[in-house]
Amino acid sequence: MPETPLARAAKLFLLRPEDDAARLRLYEVLSGAELVLPLQGEAEPGSEDVTPETVEAGGVPHVVAHDSVAAFAGGAPRPTATLSGLALSQMLDGQGVGLALHLEGMADPLLVAPESLDWLARNLAGGPSRVEARPLALHPPKGLPAGLLTALDRRLAQGEGLATAAWLAAVDWSDGSRGHLLAFVGARPGAEEPLAAGINAAVALSGSDGVRLDVTFLDEGDPVLERIARVALRFDMVDPMEPPTGPPRLR
């Protein structure tokens, strides 16, 4: 089983626990990762309430989570739930409950303290904000930190199947400010909010202070797309393995 991005980020953090960049990268990857939670039992018919398994560590309860369904391969079938790291941190916010992460290639779980989960939930609680400025000029992207570009690439890979493509360009705005614009093309119905929230998390947790990255959503035939395509960096997001069907999975 290939090592997951979350496992790689965790190993880097364990090698450099005092490195703020390694810590932020772990939080960023965790916020967007899909975690598999073993449950104490099946939900009642018609109910969405589930109870995840927990373990005690240092006298503190920790929810058990895995970074891959492969952890359950070959065993007896058991009930599980899949939840993004951000959604789980928001669910546990203020409850004094940590996270015991079982990661591919690591013998022992990574313990994430309750206060770390609270910080993650509250740091991203506001989500992306809406702006009314109009783009006046578009340019090739320039000057974005390498760490942010890596985080964006990872987030867009997680969003495969939720849009056709994304275009990244530098932009001059009508309010006199400058920044960058990420334009999603052909987003599936209902995918706009999770895509925007994922990009917001990538920027907020990349350690790139002062970077402005706005998000917009365009149809395939939008006239402005031709202008963007002349200068922008394209990220393909079509899932090569499976055509999208049904509602998008929230990440």
Topology, element by element:
Blueprint: H1 5-15, H2 20-32, E1 34-38, E2 54-57, E3 60-66, E4 80-84, H3 85-92, E5 98-102, E6 110-112, H4 114-123, E7 135-139, H5 146-158, E8 165-173, E9 178-185, H6 192-204, E10 213-218, H7 224-231, E11 233-236
Helix pairs in contact: 1-2, 2-3, 2-5, 2-6, 3-4, 5-6
Task: Tell me what you see in this structure.
This is SseB family protein. The chain is of the alpha+beta class and 251 residues long. The protein has 2 domains: 5-123, Trna Endonuclease, Chain: A, domain 1 (3-Layer(aba) Sandwich); 135-236, Alpha-Beta Plaits (2-Layer Sandwich), CATH 3.30.70. It contains 7 helices and 11 strands. The chain has helices at 5-15, 20-32, 85-92, 114-123, 146-158, 192-204, 224-231, and strands at residues 34-38, 54-57, 60-66, 80-84, 98-102, 110-112, 135-139, 165-173, 178-185, 213-218, 233-236. Strands 7, 8, 9, 10 and 11 form a 5-stranded mixed sheet that branches. Strands 2-3-5-6 form a 4-stranded mixed sheet. It has a two-stranded antiparallel sheet with strand order 1-4. The longest helix has 13 residues, at 20-32. The chain starts with a helix and ends in a 15-residue tail after the last strand. The model is unreliable at 244-251 (pLDDT under 50).
Number of helices: 7
Poorly predicted ranges:
244-251
- Determine the fraction of residues in helical runs and give it as a percent range: 25-40%
| CATH classification class of the largest domain | Alpha Beta
First-last Cα distance: 22 Å
Average pLDDT: 86
User: Which range does the strand content fall in?
Assistant: 15-25%
Gyration radius (Cα, Å) is 19 Å
- Known CATH architecture of the largest domain: 3-Layer(aba) Sandwich
CATH topology of the largest domain: Trna Endonuclease, Chain: A, domain 1
Please report the total strand number as a whole number: 11
Q: Would you tell me the structural class of the helices and strands?
A: alpha+beta
The biggest beta sheet reads: 5 strands, mixed
Shape: elongated
The total tally of domains equals 2
H-E order: HHEEEEHEEHEHEEHEHE
Protein name: SseB family protein
